[in-house]
Amino acid sequence: VERNGEQTEFLEAAGEVLSSLEPVVAANPRLEEEGVIERLVEPERVIMFRVPWVDDAGKVQVNRGYRVQFNSAIGPYKGGLRLHPSVNLSIIKFLGFEQIFKNSLTTLPIGGGKGGSDFDPKGKSDREVMRFCQSFMTELQRHIGPDTDVPAGDIGVGAREIGYLYGQYKRLRNEFTGVLTGKGLAYGGSLVRTEATGYGLCYYTQEMLSVMKNDSFKGKTVVISGSGNVAIYAAQKATELGAKVVTMSDSNGYVYDPEGIQVDVVKQIKEVERGRIKEYTKRVPSAEYHEGCSGVWTVACDIALPCATQNELSEESAKTLIANGVTAVAEGANMPSVPEAVEAFQKAGVLFGPAKAANAGGVATSALEMSQNSERLHWTFEETDEKLHGIMIQIFHASYDAAKKYGMDGNLVAGANIAGFEKVAEAMLAQGIAY
Ligand code: NDP
C-alpha cells in the first residue's frame, strides 16, 4: 500500500482480488514461501513516455503515454490501449492487474498488460488522431512485438486508431505481424472481434441465468449503460436472445426507449456519425432523453449490464436497482460497480457476474486473432463465434466451480479471481523467482 499510496483504482482492484485469494493462500503454503502475491502485485515493467504531436493549428501538444507489462507467466502481455483524459498510472495499473486474471480465465496463453494515454480523441480531427497515434507508436514499438506484448483497443481506441497505430508499427519495423489485435479485416483482423465483448457478455450471462436460476434472457427487460463498442453489441445479442433492451447512455445522459432500443439506429449514430446518444430521440419518437448518466440505473429492469466505465454504478444505484426488482447484473465495462454496490447485489441474492469473467470475450477473441495471424489464415464468423461462445461458458463454469471448491457457493467474484489466479500461480511457481 505504501508504495502505491496515490493509486486509488489500483489499490481498490488489488484489494478486492487479494481478499478473495486468502483461502487459496492459506491452503497452499508454497505461495507464501515463494512470494507469489508480493510478486503478483508489482508489474514486471512500467513504461511511461512523452507523446508530442502537432495539432491542426500547428501548435505542439504533449501527452503522456503508458504501457504496463504486468505479468508474462502464461504468455505474452496482452491488454488494450485506452485514450481518455482521465487516464493515469493508477487506472492503467488497475486495468493491467485485472487483465492478468481475465486472460488466464480465457484458457488461452496470454499474460496481462494495459496501456494508453491522457490524449482525448473527442473533438479531434482524423488527422490529429493519426498524428497522435503515429507519435505514440514511435515510442511504443520498441517495447512490443507479436511474441512480447500485443496491445488492443479499449475506450477511445477503435478500428480507426488501431489502423493508424498498426501502419506506423509496420513502417518502423518493416514487419507484417500480429502485433496489435482489433485490426481491420483487410489487414489481419478477425471476424467477431468487433462484437466479441458484448456478445461474450451475453453468452456468459445466459449461462449464469441458466445454471443458477434455470432462466434466460427471453422476455426480460434489460438496462444497458454506455453506447460504445461493448454496449452496442451487448444490446444486439441480448435482443437476439429475446430480451428487450430499454436504455443506452453516454457520459452526458441516457435514452429510454420502452419499445426496445433499435440497435441499428445506435450503430449509425455512434459508429458512422460519431455522434451522441441524445440524437437517438430525434430518429425514434418512442424514446426519451434524460440528462445525467447515472439516472440510467433508476429504470426498472430484470437484468442490468453496465458497459460504460469504471465506478459508474454506485451503492445508491445498486440499491435502486434492487428495489426495482433486478435479478442479475453482469459487468461489460471494467470495474463499473463500486465495491459497496457489489456487496449490496450479493447480499440481496442478485446474480453478479464480475468484469474479469463476464467481459473476457473481447480479449479471448483477440487471442483467436493472434492464432489466425500466426497461421496466416482467416476463420469464418460462425467458427469464431462458436469458439467465443464455448470460452464464455467455460469461464462461467471455472468460476462457479472454484467458488464451490473454497466454500463460497455462487460467489462468482471470488470464483473468477481464484480460477484466474490458480493457473498464473502455477506458472510462476514453475518458473522460479525469475520475475
Ligand atoms: P468505447 O469508447 O467504445 O465506449 C465507452 C462508452 O462509455 C461511451 O458510451 C462513453 O461515453 C462511456 N463513458 C466513457 N467514460 C465515461 C465516464 N467517465 N462516464 C460515463 N460514461 C463514460 O469503449 P468500449 O465500449 O470499448 O469500453 C467500455 C468499457 O468496457 C471500458 O470499461 C472498457 O475497459 C471495457 N472493455 C472493453 C473491451 C472491448 O473489447 N472494447 C473489452 C473488455 C472490457 P462518452 O462518449 O460520453 O465518453
UniProtKB/TrEMBL annotation:
Pfam families: ELFV_dehydrog (PF00208), ELFV_dehydrog_N (PF02812). CDD domains: NAD_bind_2_Glu_DH. SMART domains: ELFV_dehydrog (SM00839). GO terms for molecular function: glutamate dehydrogenase (NADP+) activity; nucleotide binding. Keywords: NAD, Nucleotide-binding, Oxidoreductase. One of its GO terms (cellular component) is cytosol. PANTHER family: NADP-SPECIFIC GLUTAMATE DEHYDROGENASE 1-RELATED (PTHR43571:SF1). This is Glutamate dehydrogenase. It comes from Shuttleworthella satelles DSM 14600. The lineage of its organism: Bacteria, Bacillati, Bacillota, Clostridia, Lachnospirales.
